[in-house]
Amino acid sequence: MTKTAKTVLFAEDEPLARDLLRDAIYAHPMLRLVGEAADGASALARIRQLRPEVVFMDIQMPEMTGLEVLRRLDYLPQIVFTTAYDQYAVTAFELHAVDYLLKPFTPARFADAVARLLDGPLHARDTLAGALAQAGGGPASGPARLERILVRDRGRIFPLAVGDIEYMKADSKYTVIAARGQSFLVRIGISELEVQLDPAHFIRVHRSALVNLDFVDSMRADDQSQLQIRMRDGSVVTASREASKLLRDMAI
């Protein structure tokens, strides 16, 4: 019996990632693209209107997240989440996602996700185990730590290893990341990032600043007994009184 192509809609706010995902869907003979959206509100409206069989859903989008979109649907299409943040894997599979693609994904990884779609829903535990393995964790490893973040630089998007991040500063709803002698702006709050970082390396020194201790050059108290943290790139970050006390207590 010949299988018919599945109708597909994708939601992705990054223009480059949107182009790549569109091309991948068009190239697959068993997928038929019927719509796309660039933010959560549009995704919800388009899915309700078109009722596709399959949705490739980014998680972090303007207006509302992909998880919020899914919770508001009145039916359950086959969902493949696409995101740069591996901490959402458990939540995605609790919501019965068929697969979970960490960006940037390879053509082979995309083909594997489509194979899962065409074969029908997998056992949730098996699928979750695969996602955790891809994220570098395991069933008993506890909450996953961020290993990389997708950042944009002069029209290109690339994964930045968390270990390369020197410090972060809050900028309204965004976060400025300093790494490799450059600054990158990401659309995720500093508090949301903090809970996914290893506290042995990253310290919240102020309500609007996180520093990676591996990149601290020195610390010196000012007239108010607050530590002035000098980073290797020459930047200076002032620690709050509470953080200054914590850092002093950490000193041997």
How would you explain this protein's 3D organization?
The protein is an alpha/beta fold and about 250 residues long. The chain has 2 domains: about 5-135, 3-Layer(aba) Sandwich (Rossmann fold), CATH 3.40.50.2300; about 160-250, OB fold (Dihydrolipoamide Acetyltransferase, E2P) (Beta Barrel). The protein is built from 8 helices and 15 strands. The protein has helices at about 15-25, 40-50, 65-70, 90-95, 105-120, 125-135, 190-195, 240-250; strands at about 5-10, 30-35, 55-60, 80-85, 100, 150-155, 155-160, 165-170, 175-180, 180-185, 200-205, 210, 215-220, 225-230, 235-240. The strands form 4 sheets. It has a 5-stranded parallel beta sheet with strand order 2-1-3-4-5, sandwiched between helices. Strands 10-9-8-12-11 form a 5-stranded antiparallel beta sheet. A 3-stranded antiparallel beta sheet has the order 13-14-15, with helices on one face. About 35% of the residues are buried. Residues about 120-145 have low confidence and may be disordered.
Give a short synopsis of this structure.
With 252 residues, the chain is of the alpha/beta class. It is 30% helix and 32% strand.
